[in-house]
């Protein structure tokens, strides 16, 4: 669906660049760099797919060491996955080259990739691009970086939030990519967030996990989980605030802002979902446990039949209750209430009679759809975000070349 | 995909009929009856969806009682689900009327429904149809019954198998419907099998479970499971064979023939999958457990990305290995071998180099696709059957009216 292009942003002490190194055949930007001018700490979450790109293996390892991080390098157009040992060799070659150019340690560089699986990286294209990449790196380069990580994305994705800790102004900004293969536990998406806040790595990891759960782990486009998913936050401490401690008011502020940026990026991914024409929120309340709420929301948000009905602007609550029924969660069908953009569709074990089907259909014509499900079985809630399932999803994915 | 229309069949001692009672707006057949001329035993499996049609609740209960069964009545055009207590009342009214017409006990009648959820059955249409239904019931009526249970199906589905126990000729014949909402644990499908074999209800239930696992529980079209799935076998013993005992040679013969009929019907459902252009077998070998094998096969067969790639005739093994990776089963990515219609696509942690991409694409152009995956991690195997994911799937499901 058409969305306004988000604005460029700057985070104090961060620079970025995006260039075309020749991986994408159409000459589009395909190599990005995010650089902190001073050593930063990093936290990250990565795909749970057992088949993983070399860059995921390497970055996961580096983040775990919790040492200082200066840079993230990202290529699009090639996932660098499923090509045996060559994948790791190519990762290390690129990192070596970049470390020399930036005159920093190899251990200070994270790496991520996205694109076609199983095709070896063309030799030298990435390393040959490094000098230009470093030269172009500037405080105004975030838009270029956001563009250089796109694959089937129609728009670049950026988001920013600001708040203060005492006199210290904190900025949290991020870029992301993703439009297909999006499913809880992240799926094909990359997100890179930068902040000038001072925070230690383990507290940052905790905040990131909370933000991730409410954002990237709550969206689904097509139920497929990729080999390359990566969400990394870098914090360079240049705001000079007192370090943020877990459980403090500042931690709550920071996590709220980080969640806001992450959700904003996640929503942009759903709106850019392959062939999407509508943004759908599935809100489940009255569940016995948080896990039940999320399972039911995911079941509805993942149903191809629900998603094609939304594309067809059909208030088909039957497919919704059906997907609730096979979520694998104990429910009382006779208690369930289903509302669609405010209109009650199902209640008291029966569909609601409506004066006019036309007014219901008009509600379906909106670009934003809220499916609210009350299980009346407890007090827990969850939201999952998705898009509809259109002809264009099939078109895009039938024609995307191996 | 276009398939030859299967032939009519007869099972000794069974009659059937299919008529139009007015549930379907277009005047097509929508009420079916299968009748045994003598008391039969029945076995059945039903949807695991927690939201269930009244007919499912009722038939499950009747089958469990293991008493004599004479008839099954099935309507299409209305699922009789999610309409509160009215659903059960309407079931019982129809059964009462039919019992009087056939002069048999209400306890001897099973019932099944398929169609739109949440719309109450129009009063009297079903009961008014009963006299014509009974009058038309004949040994040659199976095709009419098969037609009367169709919803979005493009073709009626029948299958038959024959074998001998000594001098006794056993016939097993069946009808089925289903084209969307098809997923393991049965999903929107109905199947009714009749046999003249002599077998007690618990042995029949055991044979049915084996046949079901290899057929209806191994197919997926779109990952949605319905409120109405039903698979019932009736055996009237008119062949006069010595009763079939578990563990016997005859049991093995009977189960093989029942599996053959069930698989045949299940394959017809997949081929008639909404918008399907190809029949896809996902065969997993080298798994540690049977459950692992099936989970991996299901993960690949359910992936929208794999299914759109097959529609696009694209040998995209990357999406296959990706779906293997998120199946939730321990694997060794470096051992996996993926073959597509005989051509090795992935081996030794690397995609296989092919002399020509054209020959690979030609293999993809066939209407039948075999994805063979060797996990090289054990000796267990499983097969799951599915179809591709085309524009027409979206079209059919966006336009099917609530």
How would you describe this protein?
- The structure is a homodimer of 402-residue chains.
- Chain A has 402 residues and is of the alpha+beta class.
- Chain A folds into two domains: 14-271, 4-Layer Sandwich (L-amino peptidase D-ALA esterase/amidase), CATH 3.60.70; 279-399, Ubiquitin-like (UB roll).
- Chain A has eleven helices and 15 strands.
- Chain A has helices at 54-65, 86-102, 125-136, 142-148, 201-214, 249-271, 290-302, 304-311, 317-325, 357-364, 391-399; strands at 14-19, 31-46, 69-76, 109-114, 157-165, 168-177, 190-195, 219-220, 230-235, 279-287, 337-340, 343-347, 350-351, 368-374, 380-387.
- In chain A, strand 3, helix 2 and strand 4 form a beta-alpha-beta unit.
- The interface between A and B is large, with 66 and 66 residues.
Q: Topology of this structure?
A:
The structure is a homodimer of 402-residue chains.
Chain A: E1 14-19, E2 31-46, H1 54-65, E3 69-76, H2 86-102, E4 109-114, H3 125-136, H4 142-148, E5 157-165, E6 168-177, E7 190-195, H5 201-214, E8 219-220, E9 230-235, H6 249-271, E10 279-287, H7 290-302, H8 304-311, H9 317-325, E11 337-340, E12 343-347, E13 350-351, H10 357-364, E14 368-374, E15 380-387, H11 391-399
Parallel strand pairs in A: 3-4, 7-9, 8-15, 10-14
Antiparallel strand pairs in A: 1-2, 2-3, 2-9, 5-6, 6-7, 10-15, 11-12, 11-14, 12-13
Alpha carbon gyration radius of chain A: 22 Å
Quaternary assembly: homodimer
What is the assigned CATH homologous superfamily of the largest domain in chain A? L-amino peptidase D-ALA esterase/amidase
Q: What fraction, in percent, of the residue positions of chain A are helical?
A: 25-40%
Secondary structure tally: strands of chain A: 15
Domain module tally of chain A: 2
Largest sheet of chain A: 8 strands, mixed
Q: Can you count the helices of chain A?
A: 11
CATH topology category name of the largest domain in chain A:
L-amino peptidase D-ALA esterase/amidase
Order of helices and strands of chain A: EEHEHEHHEEEHEEHEHHHEEEHEEH
CATH architecture of the largest domain in chain A: 4-Layer Sandwich
Q: Which structural class fits the helix and strand makeup of chain A?
A: alpha+beta
**What number is the mean pLDDT of chain A?**
91
Low-confidence stretches of chain A: none
Greatest interface and its residue counts? Answer: A-B, 66 and 66 residues
**What share of residues are in beta strands of chain A?**
25-35%
Q: Termini separation of chain A (Å)?
A: 25 Å
């Amino acid at each position: 669906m058409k969305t306004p292009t988000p604005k460029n942003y700057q985070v104090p002490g961060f620079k970025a660049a995006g260039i075309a190194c020749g991986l994408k055949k159409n000459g589009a930007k395909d190599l990005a760099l995010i650089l902190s001018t001073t050593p930063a700490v990093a936290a990250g979450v990565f795909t749970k797919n057992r088949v993983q790109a070399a860059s995921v293996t390497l970055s996961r390892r580096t983040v775990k060491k919790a040492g200082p991080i200066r840079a993230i390098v990202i290529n699009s157009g090639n996932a660098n996955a499923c090509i045996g040992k060559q994948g790791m060799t190519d990762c290390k070659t690129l990192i070596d080259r970049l470390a020399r150019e930036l005159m920093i340690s190899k251990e200070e560089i994270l790496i991520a990739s996205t694109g076609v699986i199983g095709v070896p990286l063309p030799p030298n294209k990435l390393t040959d691009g490094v000098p230009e990449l470093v030269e172009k790196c500037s405080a105004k380069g975030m838009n270029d970086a956001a563009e250089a990580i796109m694959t089937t994305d129609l728009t670049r994705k950026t988001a920013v939030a600001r708040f203060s800790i005492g006199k210290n102004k904190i900025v949290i900004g991020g870029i992301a990519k993703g439009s297909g293969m999006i499913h809880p536990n992240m799926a094909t998406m990359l997100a890179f967030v930068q902040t000038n806040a001072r925070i230690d790595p383990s507290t940052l990891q905790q905040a990131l996990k909370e933000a991730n759960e409410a954002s990237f782990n709550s969206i689904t486009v097509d139920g497929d989980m990729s080999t390359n998913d990566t969400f990394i936050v870098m914090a360079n401490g240049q705001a000079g605030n007192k370090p943020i401690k877990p459980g403090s008011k500042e931690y709550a502020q920071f996590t709220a802002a980080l969640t806001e940026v992450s959700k904003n990026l996640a929503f942009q991914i759903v709106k850019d979902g392959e062939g999407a024409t509508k943004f759908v929120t599935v809100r489940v309340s009255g569940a016995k446990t948080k896990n039940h709420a999320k399972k039911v929301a995911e079941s509805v948000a993942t149903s191809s039949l629900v998603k094609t009905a939304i594309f067809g602007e059909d208030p088909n609550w039957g497919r919704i209750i059906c997907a609730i029924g096979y979520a694998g969660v104990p429910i009382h069908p006779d208690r369930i209430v289903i509302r669609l953009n405010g209109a009650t569709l199902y209640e008291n074990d029966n569909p609601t009679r409506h004066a006019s089907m036309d007014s219901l259909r008009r509600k379906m014509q909106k670009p934003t759809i809220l499916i609210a499900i009350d299980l009346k079985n407890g007090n827990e809630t969850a939201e999952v975000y998705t898009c509809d399932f259109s002809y264009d999803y099939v078109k895009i994915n039938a024609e995307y070349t191996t």
